[in-house]
Write a structure and sequence with these properties.
Blueprint: E1 3-9, H1 13-24, H2 26-33, E2 36-43, H3 48-52, E3 60-61, H4 64-69, E4 73-78, H5 86-95, E5 99-102, H6 105-121, E6 126-127, H7 138-144, E7 151-157, H8 160-172, H9 176-185, H10 194-197, H11 200-214, E8 224-225, H12 233-242, E9 244-255, E10 258-269, E11 281-288, E12 292-299, H13 303-319, E13 338-339, E14 344-354, H14 359-369, E15 374-381, E16 386-393, E17 396-397, H15 398-409, E18 414-423
Parallel strand pairs: 1-2, 1-4, 2-3, 4-5, 5-6, 8-10, 10-13, 10-18
Antiparallel strand pairs: 7-9, 7-11, 9-10, 11-12, 14-16, 14-17, 14-18, 15-16
Helix pairs in contact: 1-2, 1-13, 5-6, 6-11, 8-9, 14-15
The structure holds NADP nicotinamide-adenine-dinucleotide phosphate (NAP) and L-homoserine.
L-homoserine binds near residues 161 and 300.
Length: about 425
């Protein structure tokens, strides 16, 4: 049996997870898939990560050029992260005809349109199941299922770190900083955790998922993005009282040529399937015109689940022919597509006011004047003659709500608008 030689660039959480699976399950993969896969090289800054894992340092390789030049290496796994030098290294491998398996959603969201043509020109493939939703095979499903369906919407919890933080705050009353440092220790967070908490990571993933689901390029720069740093313990408490959990949602919708793509925290009703997705788990809830509603659920981050997705791509790449995008993947929004900025949603609004007669009615008037209809309102006493008024609105246009809040912020007796969170 011919050995199929591969290399790994970046032996951290994900690269290490993939290496473990490839070595521990090597015989199993041989038996079930007929592929004898051997890791010939590991590229990292130095031998330290190999030594830490008890991997022979003879596998260490210092240079991407050496990997690219070795004709025995058929495929390279990229798990270094970041845009450069990952992009240059991947380009070298593809140009040498080696398929690349990557977990790098940032690079993919930014440069998919540049990398895929290199793969195509050299008859090799670019595989990225591990880039979105950890071990959950949602990329495979979007690429290979639903051929007869028009996917109308995807609602995802697609960042493990923020879901872990929000779950710890919600369930254990943990503070934000402690929950974030736990997520970092557990290997869920990006090298720069701002990517997670400010919603960039979810926007990169939504760009990839929405492009595949809607068969058109949804550039990450066109995605509305808001992170979780503004979500307070009070918001979580209010959400619970009103029957909701707060989640960082990635939402993509297509209706004809109208596309909506946004990432932001949202109130999710306790009876919605997404509300029970907690910790570093992820889920993608998908609506197709014939298949109806589906939910993909599983571990969204971490060494083993993401390593599993990497290995499934390695087996796929070594066992068959590459497949390329079925749409014009040029990195830009198609000129026929209308990006919907004024989307419609329910809203939770928390306003701090001076506790004086008439304030509530002045706020309600402004909302009404802007066509924002109130579904529920509560008032709780604050400190020193202040009060907090909390509104849930019926579905209203984003622009109308933002316009109302600007006017409300200027009303006499309104101290400030503390929080605005959309309701799913
Ligand atoms: P990580 O633990 O930081 O591992 C990255 C490894 O690559 C480290 O050993 C790092 O060395 C090495 N590396 C980085 N730049 C390098 C360079 N220029 N030359 C040589 N080696 C270099 O990161 P990770 O969490 O495994 O993430 C890797 C990729 O997978 C990222 O694209 C990430 O977004 C993606 N991803 C991660 C997860 C997850 O759960 N962690 C899940 C899905 C996808 P140093 O430590 O010395 O920098
Ligand atoms: N930092 C990412 C997350 C890793 O927390 O979801 C998985 O892509």
């Amino acid at each position: 049996m011919k050995k199929r030689k591969i290399a790994i660039m970046g032996l951290g959480t994900v690269g290490g997870g993939a290496y473990d699976i490839l070595t521990r399950n090597r015989d199993y993969i041989l038996k079930t898939q007929g592929l004898d896969i051997e890791v010939k090289y590991i590229l990292d800054r130095d031998v330290t990560p190999l030594e830490k894992r008890g991997i022979p340092v003879s596998l260490w390789c210092a240079s991407a050029d050496a990997l690219a030049a070795d004709p025995e290496v058929e495929l390279v796994i990229e798990t270094m992260g970041g845009v450069e030098p990952a992009k240059t290294f991947i380009s070298k491998m593809l140009s040498a005809g080696k398929s690349v398996v990557t977990a790098n959603k940032e690079l993919l969201a930014k440069s998919w349109h540049e990398l895929e043509p290199i793969a195509k020109a050299h008859g090799c493939g670019l595989y990225f199941e591990a880039s979105c939703v950890g071990g959950v095979p949602v990329i495979r499903a979007l690429g290979e299922s639903f051929q007869g369906d028009k996917v109308q919407a995807i609602y995802g919890i697609i960042n493990g770190t923020t879901n872990y933080i929000l779950s710890k705050m919600s369930r254990d009353g943990c503070d934000y900083a402690t929950a974030l440092s736990d997520a970092q220790r557990l290997g869920y967070a990006e090298a720069n955790p701002s990517s997670d908490v400010d919603g960039y990571d979810a926007a990169y993933k939504l760009s990839i998922l929405a492009s595949l689901a809607f068969h058109t390029c949804v550039p990450y720069g066109s995605i509305y993005r808001e992170g979780i740093s503004g979500v307070s313990a009070r918001d979580i408490e209010n959400a619970h009282e009103l029957g909701y959990e707060i989640k960082l949602l990635a939402i993509g919708k297509r209706d004809g040529n109208n596309i909506e793509a946004r990432v932001h925290p949202a109130f999710v009703a306790r009876d919605h399937a997404l509300s029970s997705v907690s910790g570093a788990f992820n889920a993608v809830y998908l609506q197709g015109d014939y298949v109806g509603n589906l939910m993909f659920y599983g571990a969204g981050a971490g060494a083993a689940p993401t390593g599993s997705a990497i290995v499934s791509d390695v087996v796929k790449a070594l066992g068959g022919s590459p497949k390329y995008c079925d749409f014009d993947n040029n990195g830009k929004l198609d000129k026929n597509i209308n990006l919907v900025g004024d989307f419609v949603s329910g809203y939770y609004i928390d306003i701090s006011v001076e506790d004086k007669p008439g304030v509530l009615s002045r706020i309600s008037t402004v909302l009404g004047e802007n066509n924002v209809s109130i579904k529920a309102a509560t008032q709780a006493p604050g400190d020193d003659g202040t009060a907090n008024v909390v509104f849930l609105t019926h579905r209203a246009g984003e622009k109308s709500v933002m316009r109302s809040l600007e006017s409300i912020g200027k009303l006499a007796s309104v101290i400030n608008v503390q929080s605005v969170i959309r309701v799913l």
